[in-house]
Write a structure and sequence with these properties.
By secondary structure, the protein is mainly β. It has one helix spanning 22-36; strands at 40-41, 58-60, 76-80, 83-87, 94-97, 102-107, 110-113, 136-138, 148-150, 176-183, 186-194, 199-203, 211-216, 223-224, 232-239, 243-246, 252-259, 269-278, 285-292, 300-307, 312-321, 328-337, 347-349, 357-365, 371-383. InterPro entries: DUF2793.
Length: 385
């Protein structure tokens, strides 16, 4: 067995069997323990010893030290019994720096401070890197689902001198990224990207049955109210930009307006007022208003009027949900001006208005040399449960 003169960690001298003046060795070890146990240093910024140090005062010698501290950079300097003693730190040693109210750790050949909360008297935190933890509980217990759990009267996410963002990210469009509000751990309200990329507001009486109150379309920003309890009349869209058709005898889409899903309710209605001008001659110029699940010229044709020698026409078209979001009846409701053959019969539709659909306005020329212009349109919507 190899016998050593000093202890392996603090280098405290052993009292050897044949040693004389054993009390000297013992006192040296006691002085080292007095310095290093519960290590607290007055400062770590001095490069020379203070003029009148107190007995037992301790310092960490700053880089570039001189005088009695020359060549002792980074060591713990202790003023003991009228002289300076120096102790070389090892990795993992900790010291409290009184002047900074900071906890210091010796690592990689240098002393560094752990962050402090800045409170009166100072208070050091644990190391700041906690990567790879399975879960964290703050006054609570985290689990595999709630990997960050907090019980607190309030929580604060503050800025660092500018703005602040909270991010909730989902992997695919069909997943959910939302904020859920609960009563006794049962859902009562939810807002976010619930099952698609539109923004939804939902409520529930029991956490199982959910009612969607508001939906904001991700592509257009249009707002719909799928469960609106009150009758609501509104102008969905109005334009007066003049869309002209000429040079073709094929049916041509002039305008397609999005009708947001859920905006009507099962007993709602739509009224479309259109203002037209066209070449004044005997040739037919057909004006159509349709409702379809897609934009373009497709859809249930609720108006088909043909203007001839009168250059200006104003036409009103309407259709109604029939106590169902997927059953409609409608047709030409009023008109002024002159036209030839006109479809005045009722048209039945089966477009699902709980989903987005379109009001399609189109025209057809009998003679490609003529012109037909949709001068303006107004689309009115009545939402009724």
């Amino acid at each position: 067995m190899l016998l050593m003169n000093d202890t392996p960690n603090l280098a405290l001298p052993y009292i050897l069997a044949a040693q004389a003046q054993k009390h000297v060795t013992h006192n040296e070890a006691i002085r080292a323990l007095d310095c290093l146990v519960q290590l607290s240093v007055a400062s770590r910024t001095l490069t020379e010893p203070p003029a009148s140090p107190d007995n037992g005062s301790r310092y960490i010698v700053a880089s570039g030290a001189g005088g009695a501290w020359a060549d002792q950079d980074g060591k713990v300097a202790a003023y003991q019994d009228g002289a300076w003693a120096f102790y070389a730190p090892r990795t993992g040693w900790c010291a409290w720096a009184v002047s900074e109210s900071a906890l210091l750790v010796y690592e990689a050949g240098a002393w560094s401070a752990l962050p402090s909360d800045g409170g009166e008297g100072g208070s050091a935190d644990l190391p700041t890197a906690f990567d790879g933890l399975a879960h964290v509980g703050i006054n609570a217990t985290g689990d595999t689902t709630n990997r960050l759990s907090l019980k607190s009267p309030a929580s604060l996410f503050d800025n660092e001198g500018a703005g602040h963002q909270q991010k909730i990210n989902k992997k695919t469009s069909g997943d959910t990224a939302s904020v859920l509000y609960q009563t006794n751990y049962s859902g009562r309200a939810e807002m976010g990207l619930a099952g698609d990329d539109d923004f939804h507001f939902k409520v529930s009486p029991d956490g199982s049955t959910w009612y969607e109150a508001i939906k904001i379309d991700r592509s257009s920003g249009r707002v719909s109210f799928p469960n609106l309890a009150l009758k609501q009349f509104s102008i969905l869209d109005h334009r007066a930009l003049g869309w002209s058709l000429t040079g073709t005898t094929s049916e041509t889409a002039l305008v397609s307006v999005l009708l947001p899903g859920g905006i009507l309710g099962p007993n709602g209605a739509v009224r479309v007022t259109t203002l037209w001008t066209g070449t004044s001659n005997a040739n037919s110029k057909s004006m159509k208003v349709k409702h379809a699940a897609t934009s373009g010229i497709a859809g249930n044709n609720y108006t088909s009027a043909s203007s001839t020698t009168t250059p200006t026409s104003k036409i009103q078209t309407e259709f109604h949900n029939r106590n169902s979001v997927s059953s409609q009846v409608g047709g030409l409701s009023a008109g002024t001006g002159g036209w030839g053959a006109t479809s005045l019969g009722l048209t039945m539709g089966t477009v699902d208005t709980s989903a987005d659909s379109y009001i399609n306005i189109s025209g057809i020329l009998a003679n490609a040399a003529d012109t037909l212009t949709l001068e303006a349109y107004t689309i009115e919507v009545l939402c009724q449960p």
